[in-house]
Amino acid sequence: MIGDKKPDSEKIAVIDCQTAGVAGDMLLGALINAGANANKVNSAIKTLESPTGNYRNVKIAINQVMRGEFKATQIDVTAEAATKIIGQQLIETVEKTLDLLRLSEKAKKFASNAIRTLVNAEAGLHGNNLANAHLHEVGLIDTPAEIIGIAVAIEDLGLFKGKIYATPVAVGGGTIKFSHGIVPSPAPATLAILASKKFPMKGGPIEAELATPTGVAILVNLVDEVTRFYPALKPLKVGYGAGTKEFKEMPNCLRIVIGQPVDEGLLKDEIAVLETNLDDVTGEVMGYTFERLLLEGAKDVSIIPIFTKKNRPGQILCVIANQKDSEHLSRIIMEETGTLGVRVTNCERHILNRELHQVNIFIKETQESVNVKVVKDGNGKVINVKPEYEDLKRIAEKNHVPLREVAETANAKARETFLKR
Known about the structure:
alpha+beta; Ubiquitin-like (UB roll); 3 domains; five-stranded mixed β-sheet; four-stranded antiparallel β-sheet
C-alpha cells in the first residue's frame, strides 16, 4: 500500500506550467491545495506588517474556486504600502522578513534569489541601478507575499530536501497593457528572467499573458530540472492553483504533482550516440575505422546492415561515446569514411555498476586465477557475474582443456562467491 510517510529526501514534485503558465499566486495556491499548511503561510505573510516591512493592514484570502471543471485554490493578498517601494527596499523587506521566520537556509536562499532575480531584471530593463529602480506592479504586496508564502509552503511540504521538476512554461501571446504601455507577451521582464537562466518556454496556447515576472522569478530559482515529460514517480498529492482570470479556452490553473521517485536501483549517465549512413566504404576501411574509434575513446561501436537509395547495400556506423568526445569522434568518422555528416544525439542511459574481482579455480589440480566482472545495481545488489574471456582462453590453452570446461568451472565458482552473499 502506498503511503506518504516517506523521508523528504525521497519526495519529488512536478510544477506543470505547460498550459496555463505560472504566476506567484497560482503556484502558492497549488502548494496549499496539495497540503501545505495554510496557517503557516498566513502567519508568514502577515510578518510583512512588522516594523521591518513596508506594508500595513495585510489581508490574505484563501478560497476554493472553479476554473473550468476543476476546483482550485485561489490566493488574494492585499495591503497598504507605507512608502513608495523601490528596488533595494523590496529586497531588504523580503530578506528582513525571512530573518524573522524559522526557515532553513535553503528556503531563505531561494526567496532571496527569487526577489533579487526579479528586481535585477526590472532594473536592467529600465536602465536603473538596483537602489532606485521603480518597480510599479512589482512593488505591490503580491510579490513579497508570494515569494515568502511559497518558501514556507515548499518547506512545509519537505520539497527543499527532494527534487523539483517543471515542464517548459507557457507564456501566452498577443499583447498586454500595463504601467509601461502596450507590449507583446511575454512581458519584457518575464522574457529577461527566462533568458538569464536559459529556462525553456513556449508560446500560446492562447493570446494572453500567462507567465508573470514574479512567477518566472520564482520558477527559475526553484526548479532543479526542466522536462517535457513527467519523470517516473508514484503520485501522492496533486494540487491546483487558480489564476485571477478565467479563460473560455482552458482552465486557468497551475498543477503541482508531489510523489515518490520510482527507484529501480539503476544508475544513470549521459552519453552521445553518433550515427552515419555509408554505402561506398570498403570492408578494410570499416574495420580500421571501428578499431580507431575504440582506441580514441568510444564506449562501443557497431555496424548495422541497411539498404540505401537505389537499393544499394550499405551500413549504419553507430558509436556510443562520452558527450565531451562527440566532436572529436565525429571528426574521425568523417576523415576515415569520407561521410559528409554525422548525426549526434545526446541522451541519458540507465546502467549497472561493474566491478572487477578475482576467483581461484582448479583445472587439472592446478590453481588458476580468473578475473570476474561483477554487475551490481545502484543499491549494491549483485545482478550478474561474468568471467573475463581472455582469462578463460589463457587457462584453456595453458592446460590443454576445452574453453567450455574452463568457463563452466569459473561461472560456478563466481556464482557461489558473489551471488549468494
